[in-house]
Each structure stands twice: as structure tokens, then as C-alpha cells.
Amino acid sequence: MHIGAAFEHEFVDVSATGDHHPFSLQAFRQAEPAGSRLVTVLQNAGLEPENWLPEYGRHQYEITVAPTDAVTAADRAILVRDTVYDVFRAFGREASFAPVITPGGTGNGVHTHIGLRDAEGNNLAWDPSRPGRLSELAGSFAAGIVRHGPALAALFAPLVTSYLRLAPHNWSTARCFLGLQNREALLRICPTNEMDGRDPAPQLHFEFRGGDIGANPWILLGLLLRAGMQGLREGLPTPEIVVGELDLDGAHAGLPQLPRNLEEALETLKADEVVTSWFSPAFLATFEAIKRDEYATVRTRSLAEQCAMYTEVY
Questions:
Q1: Which CATH class is domain 1-97?
Q2: How distant, in Å, are the alpha carbons of 37, 163, 247, 263, 312 from that of 270?
Q3: What is the pTM of this model?
């Protein structure tokens, strides 16, 4: 099985002032000339930018690049971030990828796209006869990620303010489930473009929506692949596919929750013997010690101060 992957970054122009109109031409123009220069620099660097657009949040933007192999995708994630910082700084602007810029504001995610293919390039996720048009193999892969999602949170959302973003009805996710036409899913079956007779078969893939800028992109991809392979080894059945909006007071009330803060995430990680077996004890002990110290330091501040701290760092 061959993996194709790409990272999709959201960030905020924290130096911008005035009104913001999501997804608008006006928001595009407000980012000029930094926006056009960003795309040009990424193209010249061979990072294959695919999309640059204003997002829903206040002065929030999104930049995506083409999929490639997993290691190169993680390399590109770092290069894209540094390029955004440098280009915006060159125009007297300041960009931040922090999970939440201001309390109650829209969060910035780092969404991870994953495709499954065979040696000939055929899409292993595609099966039009099954729910979600998802193959049995891809269903087991997804099941591994969904099952271990709560334990992975400390690593894919490792900042104190990560958990301000991971909340219901926040253009993010707070529950562990596989979704279709649902942007609150931890793992989403991405919609396909079938206009003008386009073939959906090569397009179908997953989007993992829990990660943010605090996650190491190589570790994040490695975690998702290990969890997916665990699902394959155990032959897990395809999880329930939630189509459309969540009903947390009714049909979907029983969906597993993500941890509610970093301290709870660290405890959940320690409790999952499968996930912890993927790491050396020394790594886990060091990671936990650093993150518990960070949590103890940051949580004493107001939410506004917490957001400001991470906005400055990231």
C-alpha cells in the first residue's frame, strides 16, 4: 500500500485591521500583495500550491499544497509555514498559525489529507458498492484512527489552547467519528468533484481534522498511519459514517469524546497500551514532563493571555 499525503494550513493575519468578509474577493484583495507573492514563492520552491483562499475566521486564510509521499508531505508542512511567516513579514504583516487567536474566535487547524493506493496507483479506498463509497480496507484503516483518536490527542493537539478549538460547533471536532459531508468529524471522507463527468474513483480520500500547529508533522503522519495499520491488522469493521450535521442531543450523543484539556489528553495517552507501544518509554516520559510543565505554567493565566502567548510563538 502506498500513501499520498498533504497538509492544509489555516492561519490569521494578526496585523490586519477593519472588517473581514469570509470567502470574499474583498478578503483576497486585503491580503495583497502578500497573497500573490506567497503563491509565487511556493511555486518557485517546488511546493506545488493548489489553493489559497480567505477562510471563515476573522482575517483567516488557508493555503494548500499538492499531495506527495508521506515524508515529503511533512517536509513541505514546515517549508510552507516558514514561507508564510517570511512573506508576510516582508510586507510588514504578521501571520500566526496558533490554534486560537482570541477566546471564542474561530480556530486554526492543520488538516491532514491521506490517500491509499496500490503499486499501480489505483485508489484502494474506493468501492462504490459500500457506505460512503469506502472500501473494506479503507474502512478498517479509518476504524483504527477513530478507535485510538482520544489517545492521540496529546500529540496532534499538544498545546493548552488546542482544546479551545476542539469544541462542538466550532468548525472543528470534539468527538471521534468518521463523517461524510460533516466538518465536525475527526476523520472525514472528503467529497469528490464530479462536475463535467469527472471520475470520483481517484479522488476519494480521508481528511484528519484534529491537528494543529503544535503537532510535529512527521509524528502526526506516523501516528495516523500506525493507527490505520492497527485497524487493518485487527480487521476492524468500518465505523458508523455520520452523514450531515451532528445530533449530539439525540442520535449521536454516544460518540466518543476527545479529551477536554491537555492534562486529560496526557492521561488518555498513557492509558492506551497500543498507542504507547509505538514509542520508547524515554520519549513518552520526556514528552509528558514537558507538557505537564507547560500546562501548569500556562493554565494560571487568563484565556486571553494564553491565546496571546501561543499567537506570538506560532
A1: alpha beta
A2: 44, 18, 30, 11, 30
A3: 0.94
